[in-house]
Amino acid sequence: MLDYRRIMLALGLLLAVGMLACSIDMGAGGAVNPTVEILSPPSGSRVAPGEDLEVQYRATDAVAIVRVELEVNGQIVDVEISPAADGELSISGTLRWTPTTPGTYSLLVYAHNRDGAVSDAVGLDIIVSPPPPESTPVSPKPTHTLALPTPVPPTPTHTLVPPTPAPPTPTHTLVPPTPAPPTPTHTPEPPTPVPPTPTHTRISCPNITINVPSSAPPTRIFTLEWDSVPYQLLSGWEWGIRFKGGEASWTYLPVPLDPPPRQEGGHWKEDQLRGRGVEETLHWQVCLVNTADPATAFQCCGPVPPWPIIHTR
User: Fold this and answer.
1) Model-level pTM?
2) Backbone angles phi, psi at 105, to 5 degrees
3) Burial class, 275, CB count within 10 angstroms (exposed 0-12 / middle 13-18 / buried 19+)
4) Residue 115 and residue 120: Cα distance in Å, rounded?
5) Are 226 and 210 in contact (CB under 8 A)?
6) Are 240 and 255 spatial neighbours (Cβ–Cβ below 8 Å)?
């Protein structure tokens, strides 16, 4: 009877340990965090200052990968967003960084899924150093051949020749000066009229729909994506962005946007946006700017409401 109880107790302990291991592997709430791996370059690679470094990665997740970030010495330097609005189960791509100062840098890659879960960081070390100087080939020492001295020719003897008589000095007849032609007079031409500076009028607002994101960190770089119908802008107009929190007035980003929005996969994207460094909800709006007068021609189209983004850590 005693042996039977010991056997049952041991089986119960083994079952409890197995369930604990499964819960640890699955993470909180049974969700598995995304995974990411660096395909190239290998850790310890060297690159010269000013030379582009490409980091190739592959990220997978059971939910969907929405973006992958590259961090150098604690600062986000590049972000790649999934072209699919809902993310992808597996995504491969290239993150880029251009170093400017020699030294050893720690690079970390993170993957984020649609539910906000973040992968463990995968890192590598990169050595930034100038290329070694090219060696200058040494020219062979010339060999010298002794040359016999050139014989000096004998000094010639001269026979005295009687001097040639000088010709008589010619006499000149004065010639009257040639009269100068009269200075021509010029008739002034009327100035060419300057064409008037073209002015831009307000255009019909396109249908603008902001897609992502719905949340972003307060200090890190994030990407704002939107669609517009019609897709292309008319000549003389460009994109502008403004935002506000609980205050009544809007904050307008400098015009033109730097870098300018890019087209990708049927969308417009602005990659270098940040929050104000505190946890809050900001309302973002995409507008149009008249390039003839950017200071007064911000045209924010409605009735689409501003897009709320929760900036949390």
Assistant:
1) 0.37
2) -120, 145
3) buried
4) 15
5) yes
6) yes
